[in-house]
Write a structure and sequence with these properties.
Two copies of one chain form a homodimer. Chain A has a six-stranded mixed β-sheet with strand order 8-10-7-11-9-12, with helices on both faces. The first copy, chain A, has a four-stranded mixed β-sheet with strand order 3-6-4-5. A two-stranded antiparallel ribbon of chain A has the order 1-2. By secondary structure, chain A is of the alpha+beta class. Chain A has nine helices and twelve strands. Chain A is globular. The interface between A and B is large, with 63 and 63 residues. β2 of chain A pairs antiparallel with β3 of chain B, so a sheet runs across the interface.
């Protein structure tokens, strides 16, 4: 059985001090010491992913590690922040770790998924905590954004366009496939569900262009509701303009695909608003990083949301094997 | 049953923007925006407290809220950092919350314990996440320390004195009492165990005086081991000099009291080293905040720890009702 210290040392070791990465003191002391840049604000958020609530506990360990970080980074993306540091609080079931070889294998995969995504976004794992209990991961992310330039949910104006990055419905589609027994991680929907890509470059590119932004974690209609409320606007959507995740209609059929795009969560795309005159600039900026930006509607003064089927689900329950 | 948003709104609401508290944007967006001070390093740490692993699940809700934050703040204290912001990731059991009145009562108490300690240390709850699952709380704390002035575990020199704040054994003593059925939170040992006071003022007062510091969470000998390893020194302890928590010997008897002081964790006192010539200054500084600083030994060149009973327990298991 692993002790906490050996476990951290082997698989989840926080980075050592590295002044060029803003770390004056890394893992191994009571706290890490970070060096924020002058003139920047610090964007901070925490996201918990619990087994059989937010992800299937039998998902590949690598995907669990990737996904726990990705969903947290997605919040920084939505602010237009550059990710810099993270902390990981991992709770692992003691029982499952009494077989040392299985534990090492799981932790190695988990750590690999987590660290690979850290590296891809120049994010330093600055510390963490490992405790016993039912499998769950809380990830704190810290990013920086030039003072006053953060994207928030509150800046949308009536007549602004509403747009989304990438495509919709992949999260719900992938979950449905997983529940049917599909296990090929190369399937585009499973990839979207288990290995979502936080849109950090897109958030940075949209600074000064988008009037408001948030990430789609609860589902398009639910998250649009948050934006509408914060910005005090209504919204009119064009159902035909919703960008559909690859393979979604084949997997779920037209009707379920539409429900997944409107109400399914876990897409981790950015939902943004922008003045019509900014659209070309925004699309060009995102094209440079290989990402589509699709206009799906327009803000309006009248509160509420228009143009969607009356029975569209407003929210999204993450994966549930049963009531926890 | 409470929804996530209502639950946060009612009991755990992050603070709104407050520039004088370093918060440019508070709760309610994808991330909070904080304003670090120029010339300071950011000390960050995360601590998870799981029900029936780190605390008894039937402890008062107020104590659970207080304690989850206190153990995290203790890490900032050990760095000599001033606490500024925190994030709370709360996982709560769905089932227990179907009785709305009981849930409201528990959450109200939990929030009260958490917020009261925030206020006492001028710490802003800047954001959080509430999820379903077995009761557990991960708290991320963020503090500031003038560049280069943080206390670490690595600065002890041979011939430095070893000292502790407050008294030892209260955590283990309180746990033992709780397990025997004692429920009076006014009992000094129960208070030490369930409502520990992070030594933030002491950490700040010891900047520039202590050569090394850490907090006692795993037990005196275990934590002294961490300090010895980081500083590459040995230690000689004077058993007669260990400051004993109020009521400890009456509750546990001489032998168990000694074991609690050496091996019991959850004390959250600071263990520091300092040059002999700094002792008077250190004791005077702590006396001003009503805290004793007791010399309990001295560092030495020879690796290892001397002067303690050969059978003294080196580590500490937090509360366990059973294997999780």
């Amino acid at each position: 059985m692993f002790g906490e210290f050996e476990l951290i040392e082997r698989f989840l070791k926080p980075a050592p001090a590295a002044l060029d990465r803003g770390v004056a003191l890394g893992g191994g002391d009571d706290a890490a010491l970070l060096i924020p840049q002058a003139g920047f604000e610090l964007a901070v958020s925490v996201d918990t992913s619990n087994a059989d609530v937010h992800f299937p506990s039998d998902a590949p360990a690598k995907a669990i590690g990737h996904r726990a970080l990705a969903v947290a980074l997605s919040d920084l993306a939505a602010m237009g922040a550059r990710s810099r540091w993270c902390l990981m609080a991992l709770t692992t079931p003691g029982g499952a770790f009494e077989d040392e070889a299985a534990a090492a294998c799981w932790l190695e995969g988990f750590g690999r998924g987590f660290h690979a995504l850290c590296d891809r976004h120049q994010t330093v794992l600055a510390g963490g905590d490992v405790t016993r209990g039912p499998l769950g991961i809380s990830v704190t992310v810290m990013g920086e954004v030039p003072k006053g330039q953060a994207l928030t949910r509150a800046g949308a104006r009536p007549s602004d366009l509403i747009a989304v990055t990438g495509a919709l419905g992949g999260g719900a589609g992938g979950l449905a496939l997983w529940q049917r027994g599909e296990r090929d991680l190369a399937h585009p929907l499973l990839k979207r569900y288990l290995l979502p890509e936080p849109r950090l470059e897109a958030g940075i590119a949209l600074r000064g262009i988008a009037s408001a932004a948030l990430d789609i974690s609860d589902g398009l209609l639910a998250d649009l509701g948050h934006l509408r409320q914060a910005s005090n606007v209504g919204a009119e959507l064009d159902m035909d303009a919703l960008p559909t995740a690859e393979g979604l209609i084949e997997a779920l059929g037209e009707e379920q695909a539409q429900a997944a795009m409107l109400g399914g969560g876990d897409d981790y795309e950015l939902l943004v608003t922008l003045a019509p005159g900014e659209l070309e600039k925004a699309q060009k900026a995102l094209a440079e990083i290989g990402l589509a930006l699709s206009v799906i509607g327009r803000c309006c003064e009248a509160p509420g949301v228009y143009g969607v089927p009356a029975d569209a689900a407003p929210g999204w329950q993450h994966f549930h094997r049963g009531r926890p």
